[in-house]
Design brief:
about 210 residues; 4 helices; elongated
């Protein structure tokens, strides 16, 4: 069925049944008005889209669960990596100090740096001395064995030294808060924190550093 012809309103349109031309004066006007309204409605929908609904409670709970799982998975890896980095740094510093102590021993007739406290130990390692272990900053023939500051124990961020006089090699910290512990009689140089003693395969044995 043909609603209107191309000749516009008021003209007769062919009749599909009898062949006569039937007039539909307002057909094209109504159709044109309807299309115009539909176009305006589409423009309004584009300009003012329907706002998206916010997250539901279930969606928020799922998101929180995902974040919790990720945090629980990633944080331990960071912790292990930090501990491994500290242990690697600690081993390097121990090797350095133990090597310097052995050099001091060779230069001073088999004697390790004599010291009754951390300040004296630092002085023996950082200043020149004679072969009899007496400090001689100006004309000493031996040393210095450490340039600058002593290395830091990365597990407690301290470079101070606690001098101990035990006959047994240490198996734990002295509790003094110093970074290192040193035995002048035996030349033992150890970390002075509990963490480094607890880690398997740590640098406890000087011969295995």
């Amino acid at each position: 069925m043909t609603f209107c012809s191309k000749t516009g309103p008021g003209r007769a349109a062919p009749n599909a049944i009898g062949g006569e031309r039937t007039s539909f004066p307002g057909c094209c006007l109504v159709l044109s008005s309807g299309l115009r309204c539909l176009s305006i409605a589409r423009e309004d929908k584009t300009k003012n889209p329907i706002p998206r609904a916010a997250f539901t409670l279930v969606e928020l709970l799922i998101l929180m669960l995902i974040i919790t799982v990720l945090v629980a998975t990633i944080l331990p890896q960071f912790s292990v990596s930090a501990r491994d980095a500290n242990m690697s740094n600690l081993k390097f510093n121990l090797r350095t100090m133990r090597s310097r102590l052995e050099t001091y021993k060779e230069d001073h007739g088999g004697v390790y740096p004599p010291a009754v406290n951390g300040a004296e130990f630092k002085a023996q390692m950082k200043q020149r001395s004679d072969r009899n272990c007496l400090l001689n900053p100006l004309s000493g023939k031996c040393g210095p064995y450490i340039e600058g500051n002593l290395p830091i124990n990365p597990f407690n961020n301290s470079s101070s030294v606690a001098v101990v006089q035990t006959e047994a090699e240490p198996s734990t910290s002295t509790g003094s808060g110093d970074g290192w512990q040193y035995n002048a009689k035996h030349g033992w140089f150890y970390p002075n924190d509990d963490e480094s003693f607890r880690i398997p395969g740590g640098c406890i044995n000087p011969s295995g550093n």
